[in-house]
Structure formats: C-alpha cells, structure tokens
Amino acid sequence: MKLVIAIVQDEDASRLVNKLMGEGFGATKLATTGGFLRSGNTTLLTGVEDDKVPLVMEIIEKTCKSRKQMAPVHTPMTGSAGMYVPAYPVQVTVGGAIVFVLDVEQFHKF
C-alpha cells in the first residue's frame, strides 16, 4: 500500500477530489498555504494499493494543469531593514501538483 500526498492549487482541489472519488478512491483534504505566493493550496492524502498508483497519478496529472497568472512581488530596498519597494506584477506559473508517494507499513481502519 502507498500513501499519495498531492499538493494542489485550491482551484483544482474539488474537481480532483470528485474524480478520485468517482474512481473509488477516498481522500482526506487538508487546507494548506503555499510558500512563494502565499496562496491557498489543498493537500490531499490518499491511501492506494500499489497497483493503483499509476491510475491515481494519471488522474492528478490530467486534473491539475499549470497555468500562468500575474502576481505582485515585493522586493526589499537595499540597506533598509524592513523596507520594501511597492509591489509590481510578474507572470508566474501556478497550478499543477506536487506529489509524494510513500510506502505504508501498516493501515488500519476502525
């Protein structure tokens, strides 16, 4: 058995959960926050039999597409502690998924 941990953008999370459940996979949904853009993410935990991991990965890959968006970036002023230049927008790639697949030594459902 494997534990699939998928970190996805909030925009993709509900659609991904619905597709996973439609294929018979359960998922635990955790609200998380991304580091770079400090935007909302969702972390999904899914217990999967070893032979089903490729199917789960395919569902995640097809559902969570990366896309471009404009994001404000604050840069620190040189030599000024705690001072920032006003934000200016830059184009960044968001979305997609970060996925970890871990071995599960034991699984119990009570």
Q: Can you tag this structure with a few keywords?
A:
110 residues, alpha+beta, four-stranded antiparallel sheet, two-stranded antiparallel ribbon, elongated
Structure characterization notes:
The chain is an alpha+beta fold. The chain is 22% helix and 48% strand. It has helices at 10-22, 53-63; strands at 2-9, 28-33, 40-48, 66-76, 84-95, 97-103. The strands form two sheets. Strands 2-3-1-6 form a four-stranded antiparallel β-sheet. 15% of the residues are buried.
In terms of DSSP E residues, the strand content is: over 45%
- SS class: alpha+beta
Count of alpha and pi helical runs: 2
Shape: elongated
Q: How many runs of DSSP E, i.e. beta strands?
A: 6
Biggest sheet, spatial arrangement of strands = 2-3-1-6
Per-chain topology:
Layout: E1 2-9, H1 10-22, E2 28-33, E3 40-48, H2 53-63, E4 66-76, E5 84-95, E6 97-103
Concise summary:
By secondary structure, this protein is an alpha+beta fold. It has two helices and six strands.
